[in-house]
Amino acid sequence: MHTFTEAFSLALALILTGGSDLYQIVGLSLQVSLGATLVACALGLPLGALVAIARFRGRNLLLIVMNALMGLPPVVVGLLVYLQLSRSGPLGFLGLLYTPTAMVIAQTILITPIIAALSRQVLEDLHGEYAEQFRSLCLRPAQVMGALLWDGRHALLTVGLAGFGRAVAEVGAVMIVGGNIDHLTRVMTTAIALETSKGDLPLALALGLVLLGLALVINGAVQALRPAAQRPVHV
Fold first, then answer.
1. Any residues with CB less than 8 A from the CB of 61 and at least 6 apart, and which?
2. Which of 23, 45, 10 is nearest to 191 (CA)?
């Protein structure tokens, strides 16, 4: 058992040298989380824009559901995806269980509601401010959505970063559908849990430091983009 000082020194050495497959684990984590974030943005941003401009019966109920889905329990999502992708499930023939693709699917389900709900709020505020101009130009709904998405791109980028931060820190769902297989589906969060249970504190701490560094970078990017997101938009 290492002392904290020894473990911290060894962790820094691992980060600098990339030993014990550290970079491979970090690379897979980024690949899975970035892939899930891109898919979630492709689904969530148009959905958020549509709900922002649409007015229909049951909209308030839809907003409640969207906000509630932001708090989806990761293990429940992992279980549902597992049931769909297992051999006895409807999508079992695809052979995706215990692959990075299954992890991307689970993370996408988790963060799409977050991106949709946050983007809806951003775009609804923009739409309320410029609704009269949109009406005067006789724009179709698709054109309004496009204008809002473009003019709110800086704020929406922070939404995407928030989704990525949620995805890269996920452990429960990816553990269930990925299996934490070495050199195949082992990502930072699942590796930290495994190495801590094994007593390999230097590697667990090194991965934790990298994950903490990513969190700081994401938050720094959000803060840097905030002034741009708060500039007046132009239609």
1. none
2. 23
> Residue 228 pLDDT more than 60?
no
Domains defined for the chain, CATH in brackets: 4-229 (1.10.3720.10)
Cα separation of 85 and 28, whole Å? 21
Structure tokens at 209: 């430091």
Q: Are 14 and 110 in contact (CB under 8 A)?
A: no
What does the pLDDT look like over 20-65, one tens digit per residue?
578 888 899 999 999 999 999 999 999 999 999 888 888 889 999 9
- pLDDT score of 234: 45
